[in-house]
Amino acid sequence: MDIAVFSSREYDESHLQRALAGGACRPRFVTDALALDTAALAEGCQAVCIFVNDRADAQMLEQLSAMGIRLLALRCAGTNHVDLPAARRLGIAVTRVGDYSPHSVAEHAMLLTLALVRHLPKAMARTQAFNFALDGLVGFDLHGKTIGIIGTGRIGSVFAGILRGFGCQVLGNDICPNADFEAHGGHSVALDELQKKSDVISLHCALNAQTRHLVDAGFLSRCKRGVLLVNTSRGMVVDTEAVLSALADGQLGGFGMDVYEREAGLFFSDHSLDAGKDSVLRELLARPDVIVTGHQGFLTDQALTQISASVADSLADFAAGRPFKNAVVD
Length: 330
Hints:
With about 325 residues, this protein is α/β, with parallel strands linked by helices. The protein has helices at about 10-20, 60-65, 85-90, 100-115, 120-130, 155-165, 180-185, 190-195, 215-220, 240-250, 280-285, 300-320; strands at about 1-5, 25-30, 45-50, 70-75, 95, 145-150, 170-175, 185-190, 200-205, 225-230, 250-255, 290, 325-330. The strands form two sheets. A seven-stranded parallel β-sheet has the order 8-7-6-9-10-11-12, sandwiched between helices.
């Protein structure tokens, strides 16, 4: 069985090759993202594997269906980029990564938090210029501070446990309260209480109609002045223009982002020769109170191994005609 793996990079190939070794599946690695003008690269395959910024709307799925594709295997947990009703209508099974290291993203959120608390972007820029003055670099102890977590699922719960190790008070908000979050030392509260009390807010929620631009100008205005914001969930959860305005007037004290609402076609590739194509991102990168990473929160050996194993399981289930372990659309 042949599968086209879109948006592939060296780290994808090496882990997937190991996961598929000895099986009957033949992967065809494609560096391009899945789009209407690249779908033909999957010709002759029975399955397609895609990542978070690949296109899988109804038009795309209709094209894949016409090519004989019957399985769409996601290398991610979120499904916001897939038209699931269209997949059901077309008879395309969709699987996702049901479980991979929540520690990878939670630890990356901790990294971004500490970088903001201790003014790491500004400090690194100075030291690279051989300036070792400490003026303007006074941070604060996380111990005793209140951290708000929006989205208290597996990643949010692990993050709560990390924060408790720092001696923080951890507040959480989620439409589906999670007992594990409480077990990790978190305390569930209403969103307005979290906004008023939190010194740092970290986003770990899924992207859907309710969370799209959840963090907008109104949201930020209800937060404690000078709050730090960290986003390792999905870029569209945050209104980037509102964040820039809040940073400019001091309502927001700093922003750490691993995801960006306009990252499709930008993240995961080298754009050093056309760095001016996104003026908003350039404005963010120019600020000393912002730290940006390119959607690498998942990028640990453990997480990549588990992601690849999940994809391999889906392919094995498909080849054997078994029910999928990680089905979104069966």
